[in-house]
């Protein structure tokens, strides 16, 4: 197949090869090389209509690059991207960003400084509706009723980001992309906006991809979470899937706090320094078992020595040493132990997962 | 304030006085003869030239704004091949002085010129007047808009344009609704510079016989000095007002949100051919055509054995002498300007405040006043002054003084940033080690500042080498620079000879521009996006205190 120049504007609307009907966004084998370095290494991802996918990953793993490919701000070197079952980017076709009906919210508000708030929100609307009720509705949605005549520079950072969200929503895109929209805000404001955006996206029934490197944020906002590590999707699933049944060691350590304890597996149970642990997937031989600190309970006994206590207020982590392995154990409130005490450890969680090291 | 600081301030103030002299002289002379001023201003000796100056200035500024902005957008924001080469070529018309451009235009359409001889077009259009002046000045000044707009586009966060695209707007709409408003301050600053350039221009309008203020001032200087001085005041006020506006407008640029990243490049698609055609024609007419015309005449002169041109070849002294005078007087001016400017820069940077601003503003005012007027003020002053002052008329010291007053400001920005670049703490460190003030200066500060100062001096050198009216009016008898040689030959319609001198001048100016302006600009573009609107860079100290002249 001959590669066509990147300025092809329209292409016949063909369903994607794998035909994942029902997905508002589908990607197959998306690759991108930047500066001679492969950044995206074959991304497959589906986002069902009306759901929010949180794209989680460490800094530099390629989240922004992927988002820009979806938006049409960048062109993948290989692979297909389809929106509402229409290919927008593929080996022979590339639809310009303005034709994709995709909304985007950047890390910085990116408001047009020379336009009022209303002018910004109306920018993506047909001429006749630019200062009509649609603008007011969008502003009301983000809690900025009556701000239409203000200039962006008179708003706070959080308000500016709300305006840019309203601007993206007002155009009623079939898909909305948010690239770490709160990372420039301070923690309390971020927490407030998080809840609000979750409610908003649900109310609008929008399909969205929300990029973040904050696990808490991903879990709160995403119906499903895709964890991206080093240019590949490591796992996609509900927050509980990722947390309780991580697909790999890397996922387990990136998502949440985890003990990885050496163990001897015998079918659906493993022998670990904290006793017998049920396994969700049967395994045999030497393995590493993922054990969340809150799944370990401290009790009377003498299998472990308390080495240190990390006291957080509402809870605390007891760092113990059991059979030579460090084991973290989370308890509510202040633990009734001191450094050097001998305690017993007990596994109290759901069946866990094991990996062969 | 101790005695030493007081001495430094006194020195800075004293050195600033000459920069105010021409304007002060115009005010005093006109003030003494209010009747003459009034009669000169109230009849149409003023109105006609003033309107023509304004008409030419405004129309050229608008045309240059359109050309410069479009070219900048094409180069900075579309999928154009050879971006850096285009950027470089689009700056290059700056090396052609306006009178050389005018000579080229006239020579091209002169009988036996390029158009008639080579293209075989028998019917030669009349190129003098508004038409010719408009064409020449627009083609030579659009880089004054191109450069700041380019710098602005590089500093603009890409997410603005990307948001606009994502909201469904086509690239052309994004250009008009997002890019142009964001670049407005840069476009306005550039256009004001162009306007200033045009109303101050002497060479092109004189050769193309379009009666603007400068032409009237020059024509009246001998027969009707009262009118000439009155018109000079009007033009001087206009120029100073423009500079004041420019300085104000460049202060209110938008703060740039710093974000790295390549902006979204617009695919040219079906617009590809018009885009390349536009750039090729623009560069063709502003750069290639003038040079081609000059080369054509030069070669023809040499080949046909035209008396003027062959004598240039037979006697290399004819070219070497003005070359040496040009180089000598320019270097002298650059050195003197640096010596004069440095104390002023020190005072204004180390003790920021009202006085420092006034001093710097006065120096910039010297630059704002058209060279013709600066020179005329010195002419009238020395001719009417008694005794020893009068003897200065048409001597080398007075010529250099006029050059320094007119071009010194070009070194000011560079000197100020060089001074600011030496941390005051270094000075403290040296003081603790017991070094005397002079030792500290030569041992610590000067070496650090030298690259910046050299760049500033270089700009003075470049402009002095191209200066025409001041040299015409003030040069000692028998003293010619390349510029005056071009001028004299062109007035005699000796295009072969004019072309040879002009080519030498353009070559020198190109080499200097490359090292002083283009290379530093390209380098700073390569490293970081240039922020703000204050980056007119070329030939303009008036945009900000610190133009982007970095050490070459
Ligand atoms: N234009 C480019 N040329 C070369 N390398 C690039 C370019 N753009 C991005 N990269 C590299 O690609 C990698 C991924 O970048 P990307 O911005 O997608 O990461 P990210 O996951 O969004 O990170 P962050 O959380 O910090 O925003 C980085 O290592 C970056 O240096
Ligand atoms: Mg990113």
What does it look like?
The complex is a heterodimer of chains A (357) and B (552). Chain A has 357 residues and is of the alpha+beta class. Chain A folds into 2 domains: 23-101 and 173-249, 3-Layer(aba) Sandwich (Rossmann fold), CATH 3.40.50.300; 258-355, OB fold (Dihydrolipoamide Acetyltransferase, E2P) (Beta Barrel), CATH 2.40.50.140. Chain A is 21% helix and 39% strand. Chain A has a 6-stranded mixed sheet, sandwiched between helices. In chain A, strands 2-1-4-5-6 form a 5-stranded antiparallel sheet, with helices on one face. In chain A, a hairpin with a 2-residue loop joins β1 and β2 (37-48). In chain A, α3 (133-141) packs across α4. The radius of gyration of chain A is 24 Å and the shape is globular. Chain A starts with 22 loop residues before the first strand and ends with a strand. The model of chain A is unreliable at 1-20 (pLDDT under 50). Chain B has 552 residues and is mainly alpha-helical. Chain B has a single domain, classed as MetI-like fold (Orthogonal Bundle), CATH 1.10.3720. Chain B is built from 26 helices and no strands. The structure holds adenosine-5'-triphosphate (ATP) and magnesium ion. The site of adenosine-5'-triphosphate has 12 residues of chain A, from α1.
Feature tags:
heterodimer; A: 357 residues; alpha+beta; Rossmann fold; OB fold (Dihydrolipoamide Acetyltransferase, E2P); 2 domains; 6-stranded mixed β-sheet; 5-stranded antiparallel β-sheet; 18 strands; globular; disordered N terminus; B: 552 residues; mainly alpha; MetI-like fold; 26 helices; 77% helix; 0% strand; disordered C terminus; binds adenosine-5'-triphosphate; binds magnesium ion
Sum this structure up briefly:
The complex is a heterodimer of chains A (357) and B (552). With 357 residues, chain A is of the alpha+beta class.
């Amino acid at each position: 197949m001959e590669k066509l120049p990147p300025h092809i504007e329209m292409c016949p609307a063909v369903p994607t090869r794998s035909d994942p009907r029902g997905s508002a966004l589908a990607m197959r084998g998306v690759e991108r090389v930047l500066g001679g370095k492969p950044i995206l290494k074959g991304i497959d991802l589906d986002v069902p209509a009306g759901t929010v996918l949180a794209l989680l990953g460490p800094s530099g793993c390629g989240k922004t690059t992927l988002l820009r490919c979806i938006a049409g701000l960048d062109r993948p070197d290989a692979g297909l991207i389809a929106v509402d079952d229409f290919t927008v980017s593929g080996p022979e076709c590339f639809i310009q960003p303005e034709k994709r009906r995709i909304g985007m919210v950047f890390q910085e508000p990116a408001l047009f400084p020379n336009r009022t708030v209303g002018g910004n929100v109306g920018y993506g609307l047909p001429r006749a509706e630019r200062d009509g009720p649609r603008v007011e509705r969008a502003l009301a949605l983000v809690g900025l009723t009556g701000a239409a005549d203000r200039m962006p520079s008179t708003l706070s950072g959080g308000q500016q980001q709300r305006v840019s969200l309203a601007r993206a929503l007002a155009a009623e895109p079939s898909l909305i992309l948010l690239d770490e929209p709160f990372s420039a805000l301070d923690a309390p404001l971020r927490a407030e906006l998080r809840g609000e955006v979750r409610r908003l996206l649900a109310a609008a029934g929008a399909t969205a991809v929300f990029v973040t490197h904050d696990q808490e944020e991903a879990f709160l906002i995403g119906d499903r979470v895709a964890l991206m590590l080093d240019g590949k999707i490591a796992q996609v699933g509900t927050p509980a899937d990722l947390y309780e049944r991580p697909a790999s060691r890397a996922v387990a350590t990136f998502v949440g706090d985890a003990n990885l304890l050496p163990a001897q597996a015998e079918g659906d149970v493993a022998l670990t320094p904290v006793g017998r642990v049920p396994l969700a997937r049967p395994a045999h031989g030497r393995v590493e078992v993922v054990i969340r600190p809150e799944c370990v309970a401290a009790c009377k006994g003498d299998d472990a020595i308390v080495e240190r206590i990390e006291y957080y207020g509402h809870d605390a982590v007891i760092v113990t040493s059991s059979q030579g392995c460090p084991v973290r154990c989370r308890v509510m409130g202040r633990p009734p132990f001191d450094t050097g005490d001998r305690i017993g450890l007990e596994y109290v969680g759901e069946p866990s997962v094991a990996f062969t090291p | 304030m101790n005695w030493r600081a007081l001495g430094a301030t006194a020195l800075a103030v004293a050195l600033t006085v000459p920069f105010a002299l021409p304007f002060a002289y115009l005010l005093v002379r006109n003030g003494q003869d209010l009747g003459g001023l009034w009669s000169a201003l109230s009849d149409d000796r003023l109105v006609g030239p003033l309107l023509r100056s304004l008409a030419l200035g405004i129309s050229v500024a608008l045309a240059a704004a359109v050309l410069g902005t479009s070219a900048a957008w094409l180069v900075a924001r579309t999928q154009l091949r050879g971006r850096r080469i285009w950027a470089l070529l689009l700056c290059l018309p700056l090396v052609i002085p306006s009178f050389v451009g005018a000579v080229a235009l006239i020579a091209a359409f002169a009988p036996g010129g390029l158009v008639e001889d080579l293209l075989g077009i028998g019917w030669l259009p009349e190129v003098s007047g508004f038409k010719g002046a408009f064409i020449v000045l627009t083609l030579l000044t659009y880089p004054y808009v191109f450069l700041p707009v380019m710098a602005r586009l590089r500093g603009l966060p890409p997410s603005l344009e990307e948001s606009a695209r994502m909201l469904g707007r086509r690239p052309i709409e994004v250009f008009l609704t997002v890019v142009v408003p964001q670049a407005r301050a840069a476009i306005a600053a550039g256009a004001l510079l162009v306007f200033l350039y045009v109303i101050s221009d002497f060479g092109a309008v004189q050769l193309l016989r379009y009666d603007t203020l400068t032409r009237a001032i020059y024509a009246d200087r001998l027969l009707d000095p009262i009118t000439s001085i009155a018109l000079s005041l009007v033009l001087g006020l206009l120029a100073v007002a423009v500079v004041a506006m420019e300085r104000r407008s460049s202060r209110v640029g938008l703060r740039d949100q710093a974000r790295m990243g390549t902006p979204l490049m617009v695919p040219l698609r079906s617009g590809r051919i018009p885009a390349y055609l536009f750039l090729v024609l623009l560069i063709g007419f502003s750069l290639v055509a003038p040079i081609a015309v000059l080369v054509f005449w030069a070669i023809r002169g040499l080949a046909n054995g035209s008396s003027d041109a062959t004598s240039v070849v037979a006697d290399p002294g004819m070219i070497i002498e003005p070359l040496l005078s040009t180089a000598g007087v320019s270097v002298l001016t650059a050195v003197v300007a640096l010596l004069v400017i440095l104390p002023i820069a020190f005072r204004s940077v180390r003790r920021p405040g009202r006085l420092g601003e006034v001093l710097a503003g006065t120096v910039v005012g010297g630059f704002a006043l058209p060279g013709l007027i600066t020179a005329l003020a010195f002419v009238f002053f020395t001719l009417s002054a008694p005794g020893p002052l009068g003897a200065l008329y048409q001597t080398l010291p007075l010529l250099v003084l006029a050059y320094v007053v007119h071009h010194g400001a070009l070194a000011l920005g560079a000197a100020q940033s060089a001074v600011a670049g030496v941390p005051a703490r270094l000075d403290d460190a040296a003081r603790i080690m017991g070094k005397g003030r002079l030792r500290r200066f030569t041992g610590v500060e000067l070496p650090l500042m030298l690259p910046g100062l050299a760049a500033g001096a270089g700009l003075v050198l470049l402009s002095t080498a191209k200066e025409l009216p001041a040299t015409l009016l003030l040069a000692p008898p028998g003293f010619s620079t390349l510029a005056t040689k071009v001028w004299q030959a062109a007035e005699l319609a000796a295009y072969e000879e004019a072309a040879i001198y002009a080519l030498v001048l353009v070559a020198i100016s190109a080499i200097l521009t490359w090292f002083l302006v283009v290379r530093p600009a390209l380098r700073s573009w390569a490293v970081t996006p240039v922020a703000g609107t204050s980056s007119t860079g070329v030939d303009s100290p008036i945009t900000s205190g610190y133009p982007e002249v970095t050490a070459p």
